[in-house]
Amino acid sequence: MPGLDLVEASTFGAEQGDFDSALLTSRDGRHWVARLPRNERAEAEQSADRVALRALSAGVRTRLHFSVSTFAGQTPINGTRAVVYEFVYGSKVPLGGLDAAHATSVGRAIAAIHALPTSFVADAGLPVLTPIECLRASITVMDRAAGTGVVPPALLARWEAATEDSKLWQFQPTVINGSLAADSLLFAGSEVTGVIGWHELRVGDPARDLFWLLGAHAESVPEIGFDTYNEVRGGADRQIRQRAMLYAELELAKWLLHGTELHDTEIVDDAVEMLNALVDNVHNDVMNPLSAQTMPIIGIDEVEAMLERSERAV
Prior knowledge:
This protein is α+β, with helices and mostly antiparallel strands. The chain is built from ten helices and nine strands.
């Protein structure tokens, strides 16, 4: 970064994680974040994030009412690369801390992402998925989970019914962040000021950016978030909440597969326990396609936290 004159550096973020991070302050008062991946998975994520940030050109960013970080520079360190980004201002709010005002802003922010033109994603060579491809990806997760022999049959029947409901998969693919979660959003008060983590940027199912809201502790948060999103987007995708619920439930299947791949009996047992609890919560609906009346049933924030802990151990 030619001309960069640093006057201060400090650790940034959690001590444990996929990255070593530092907050840098330049003489002109600007802030930057330097991140060094700790493992191959983080290295791949960082590379994908750089491609996505470059695809998000200045023209594309003018369509967003919040900030997105910018790649600023890099340097080789110990066989990998430390990457410097412009700092995005704002505070993170845990999923359990979101309220109605946050949910309204989140719905608007996600709608803004989904309103971006799909052409820039294709031009950057990033994935462009059709509804059929999104469906096949879900079926693949189901089939692999079924192959473990520990998924309750009632859940498999419920998920299969959802994948066989053609109306559920009639949607217009949009630009999606692809890995959106509460940890991706930065707030000033209740307003979203920034979105970070773009390594899964693609054209795909908009429900993928919304399913995590179903794990909010306050029942009003998912409802307000989805309602605001649909209002901004015009409500054309009538089945988006049903698909979001399916994706939320399949997170437990992914957690099971994660434990199976690592041969970690603790993770597998935990996943089985949650799958059985899921059956208890949806027993009145297991033989029917997921419906708009289905209420939030799992804490996605807890699942993501477990995934994060396990991935750090890989």
